[in-house]
Amino acid sequence: MGIQFKNDVTLIRHAFVRTIERKKGIGSKLLEHLCAISTTPVLIGTWADASWAIEFYQIHGFRLLPEDEKNILLRKYWTIPLRQIETSAVLAARNWDCKTEG
């Protein structure tokens, strides 16, 4: 699991736990640590079809953002192709205050 400080947000990047090591609290501890060291609101991008990942983040207090906000944020904070924007989801930490202007 990685972290990227990007302007006024923190992005959680490449969050994976080996299949054999899942359900042992490793991902939860990593996410908790990264959120603790973040000084800006945390955003997480993942595949929209990755329901297990979305559920994991929701259990940890993140909320799935609506399509229009997701599209703006993916263009603002990530450098990804249009097709990936269409097939992605963005989740935000509790302290997210909808910074989609501009």
Describe it.
There is one protein chain. This protein is of the alpha+beta class. The chain has one domain: Aminopeptidase (3-Layer(aba) Sandwich). The protein is built from four helices and five strands. It has helices at residues 26-37, 51-59, 67-77, 82-86; strands at 2-6, 9-13, 42-47, 63-64, 88-92. A five-stranded mixed β-sheet has the order 1-2-3-5-4, with helices on both faces. Strand 1 (2-6) and strand 2 (9-13) form a beta hairpin. The longest helix has 12 residues, at 26-37. The mean pLDDT is 90.
In short:
With 102 residues, the protein is α+β, with helices and mostly antiparallel strands.
Instruction: Predict the CATH topology.
Output: Aminopeptidase
The CATH superfamily turns out to be: Gcn5-related N-acetyltransferase (GNAT)
Distance between the termini: 29 Å
* Morphology call: globular
Class from helix and strand fractions = alpha+beta
Structural Rg:
13 Å
For the residues shown, what is the average pLDDT?
90
Helix content: 25-40%
Q: What is the H-and-E element order? A: EEHEHEHHE
Largest sheet: 5 strands, mixed
Beta-sheet strand percentage?
15-25%
CATH class: Alpha Beta
Number of separate domains: 1
| Strand order in the sheet with the most strands | 1-2-3-5-4
Counted by DSSP, the helix tally is 4
CATH architectural group: 3-Layer(aba) Sandwich
Per DSSP E runs of 2 or more residues, the count of β-strands stands at 5
Which ranges are low-confidence, i.e. pLDDT below 50, for 5 or more consecutive residues?
Answer: none
